[in-house]
Amino acid sequence: MASPIEPPTGYWWNHPVADTEKTWLWICLLTALILFGWMVGWSHLGEQNPTGHTYRVSAEAYRQKVSSFTNQAVDTEQGLRPAGTDVYVAAYQWGWDGLPVVLEAGKEYQVHLGSYDVQHGFSVRDQEDLIRQFNLQILPGYEWVIPMTFDEPGTYRLICNEFCGLGHRVMQNKIIVVEGDSS
Ligand code: CUA
After folding, report:
1. d(Cα 138, Cα 116) in Å, to the nearest integer?
2. In angstroms, what is the span from residue 83 Cα to ligand 1's centroid?
3. Which of 50, 85, 87, 166 is at a distance of 20 to 30 A from 34, taking alpha carbons?
4. pLDDT tens per residue, range 122-168
5. What is the whole-number distance in angstroms between the Cα of residue 49 and the centre of ligand 1?
6. For residue 1, what pLDDT is reported?
């Protein structure tokens, strides 16, 4: 069966590129360059870059840090009240260590994130306004220390958002934010 598309005739590949075609090629190249430059621009202007510091840590060493945090924290009905401004959270298959935690609104905490086994996610949402959220990754072998301040009291739901095995769906917990003593 013959193709319905007419084959081009003659030495079609030997004709000079039409001006309109060239214009489009320049537009494509320019757009690509602008987008490439924007990647660099965004990391400086975007204010959405990972913050804090990251340290290498073994699972065992991190486990000890978390357990010393939970030992020093005051165990209340709502959750752990940290003794200072450092908060240690560990993710593991399939649960969380150091949570639920009770924090004061308006106070800056140094939140340490780490994993005992595989990669997990740290996705936090305001229970009253689920659209307000932030998502971070937790990598085994690293302790990530992030300064965090919760402006408003409330319950912040936390889930693992990185598929980490059969129990992934049960990896949830919460952060309770209460009015600060000073406010
Ligand atoms: Cu941990 Cu999914």
Report:
1. 10
2. 28
3. 50
4. 999 999 998 889 999 999 999 999 999 999 999 999 999 999 999 99
5. 22
6. 67
Phi, psi of 99 (to 5 degrees): -125, 160
> Which amino acid makes up residue 150?
F
Does ligand 1 have an atom closer than 6 angstroms to the CB of 97? no
Please report where in the chains the tokens 């870059």 appear, as a residue: 49
Tell how far the Cα of 36 is from the centroid of ligand 1, in angstroms: 33
Sign of the Cα torsion 63, 64, 69, 71 reads positive
- Cβ-contact 84, 63 below 8 angstroms: no
CA–CA separation, 1 and 169 (whole Å): 55
Percent of the chain scored above 70 by pLDDT? Answer: 97
Closest residue (by CA) to atom 1 of ligand 1?
A: 120
Q: What are the structure tokens assigned to 90, written together?
A: 């560990």
If you search the block for the tokens 């602008």, which residue do you land on?
34
Overall average pLDDT of the 75-95 stretch: 95
